[in-house]
């Protein structure tokens, strides 16, 4: 993992030019929110995530992605965790939305965390805050930056499959569509490039790559922005006409580590997804200079990544008396009251595949 020291002046340049540290913050959120009510919550979350990641290193990337997919739909309120229910109110789970179905991972991990937290501090910590803490801890365990997570989110009492299909950008998105999807959430171009850096680790299913390899834009040819050597490597992993379920590393040299190699890969046409390569290969795009900065300066990437993660984590949060603190992350409390919680088992995705849509 490369790390290039930077001067204070250089870091100030990044901040001034890209404005990433001038993010909006919800005044009601506070890193010390659970200081008196659940002081060990971060340690509890860390222990579960660390233990899971020892057996499944990909889970770190999956938990960051789960947080992202939650925040882009109804805000950061853990709506993505809600299962389908008919009573006492009908909920269409976001888990079956096109960007999530057979794709999201980590639902069982979140429930493991919730169980451990409830044992220590019953009825105190929201599932939305658990998702946010798990994302930050996953960054740290993956070799990335740490930050003080603003806490105090409440859980939503509904979900929206429609908005999940509408709001979450596709791996096939053009740069304009990516920008539009992020702008709709109050995130700017630098946020887009910085958060895309989460693709420095994790895996994607071949189904999200094969069109670039064999029939890009129905041309019968590969994507011209794809390095030819990398193209042949990917074709070996993702055969034409295959099931599409093979997994491919997002990043070539350090697939389980957060670093700035993702941006270096974009500069040599080795971005895995179309939406990745669009950041550098779109002619005249303002994202090119940001990619160059992050490729040359890992400290700048880390500073912008954590700022953008905090900013994203503040999208549409519920605080105070809004929402609730769910007793069980997959159901609103009114539904949980109908169930024997000891018998409730969440359904993890049948496909253990991680592909991020951002």
Automatic annotation (TrEMBL):
State the signal peptide span: 1-27
Binding sites annotated in the UniProt record for Ca(2+) 2: 200, 259
Give me the reactions it catalyses.
2 a phenolic donor + H2O2 = 2 a phenolic radical donor + 2 H2O
Q: Which CDD domains match?
A: secretory_peroxidase
**Top-rank lineage group of the source organism:** Eukaryota
UniProt site positions, description: Transition state stabilizer: 65
Q: Which cofactor does it need?
A: Ca(2+); heme b
Q: Kindly list the biological process annotations in GO that this record carries.
A: hydrogen peroxide catabolic process; response to oxidative stress
Positions contributing to heme b binding: 199
A GO MF term: metal ion binding
Which is a Gene Ontology cellular component entry for this protein? extracellular region
Where is it localised? Answer: Secreted
Enzyme type, top EC level: oxidoreductase
Q: InterPro entries, alphabetically?
A: Haem_peroxidase, Haem_peroxidase_sf, Peroxidase_pln, Peroxidases_heam-ligand_BS, Secretory_peroxidase
Q: Which UniProt keywords apply?
A: Calcium, Disulfide bond, Glycoprotein, Heme, Hydrogen peroxide, Iron, Metal-binding, Oxidoreductase, Peroxidase, Secreted, Signal
| Span of domain Plant heme peroxidase family profile | 28-333
Enzyme Commission numbers on file: 1.11.1.7
Please report any disulfide bonds recorded for this protein chain, giving both cysteine positions. Answer: 38-121, 71-76, 127-329, 206-238
Listed Gene3D superfamilies = 1.10.520.10, Peroxidase, domain 2
> Where along the chain is Ca(2+) 1 bound?
70, 73, 75, 77, 79, 94
Q: What's noted on cofactor binding?
A: Binds 2 calcium ions per subunit. Binds 1 heme b (iron(II)-protoporphyrin IX) group per subunit.
What is the stated purpose of this protein?
Removal of H(2)O(2), oxidation of toxic reductants, biosynthesis and degradation of lignin, suberization, auxin catabolism, response to environmental stresses such as wounding, pathogen attack and oxidative stress. These functions might be dependent on each isozyme/isoform in each plant tissue.
Family recorded in the similarity comment: Belongs to the peroxidase family. Classical plant (class III) peroxidase subfamily. Belongs to the peroxidase family. Ascorbate peroxidase subfamily.
Q: What is this protein called?
A: Peroxidase
Q: Which organism is it from?
A: Lupinus angustifolius (Narrow-leaved blue lupine)
């Amino acid at each position: 993992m490369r790390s290039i020291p930077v001067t204070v002046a250089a870091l100030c340049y990044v901040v001034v030019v890209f404005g990433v540290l001038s993010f909006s913050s919800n005044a009601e959120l506070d890193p010390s929110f659970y200081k008196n009510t659940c002081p060990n919550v971060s340690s509890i979350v860390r222990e579960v995530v660390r233990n899971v990641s020892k057996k499944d290193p990909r889970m770190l990337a999956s938990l960051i992605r789960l947080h992202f997919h939650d925040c882009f739909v109804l805000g950061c309120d853990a709506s993505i965790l809600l299962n389908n229910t008919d009573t006492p109110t009908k909920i269409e789970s976001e888990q079956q939305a096109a960007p999530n179905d057979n794709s999201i991972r980590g639902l069982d991990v979140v429930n493991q965390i919730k169980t451990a937290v409830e044992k220590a501090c019953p009825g105190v910590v929201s599932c939305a805050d658990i998702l946010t803490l798990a994302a930050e801890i996953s960054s740290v365990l993956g070799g990335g930056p740490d930050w003080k997570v603003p806490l105090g989110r409440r859980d939503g009492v509904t979900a929206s499959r429609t908005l999940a299909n509408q709001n979450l950008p596709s791996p096939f998105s053009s740069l304009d569509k990516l920008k539009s999807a992020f702008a709709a959430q109050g995130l700017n171009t630098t946020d887009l490039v910085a958060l895309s850096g989460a693709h420095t680790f994790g895996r994607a299913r071949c189904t999200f790559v094969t069109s670039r390899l064999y029939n890009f834009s129905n041309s019968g040819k590969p994507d011209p922005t794809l390095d030819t050597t990398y193209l042949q490597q990917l074709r070996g992993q993702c055969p034409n006409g295959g099931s599409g379920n093979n997994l491919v590393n997002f990043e070539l040299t350090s697939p389980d580590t957060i670093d700035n190699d993702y941006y270096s890969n974009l500069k040599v046409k080795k971005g895995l997804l179309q939406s990745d390569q669009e950041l550098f290969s779109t002619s005249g795009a303002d994202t090119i200079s940001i990619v160059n900065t992050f490729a040359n300066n890992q400290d700048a990437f880390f500073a912008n990544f954590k700022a953008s993660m905090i900013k994203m984590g503040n999208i549409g949060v519920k605080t105070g008396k809004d929402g609730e603190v769910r007793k069980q992350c997959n159901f609103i409390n009114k539904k949980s009251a109908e169930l024997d919680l000891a018998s409730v088992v969440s359904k993890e995705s049948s496909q253990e595949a991680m592909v991020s849509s951002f």
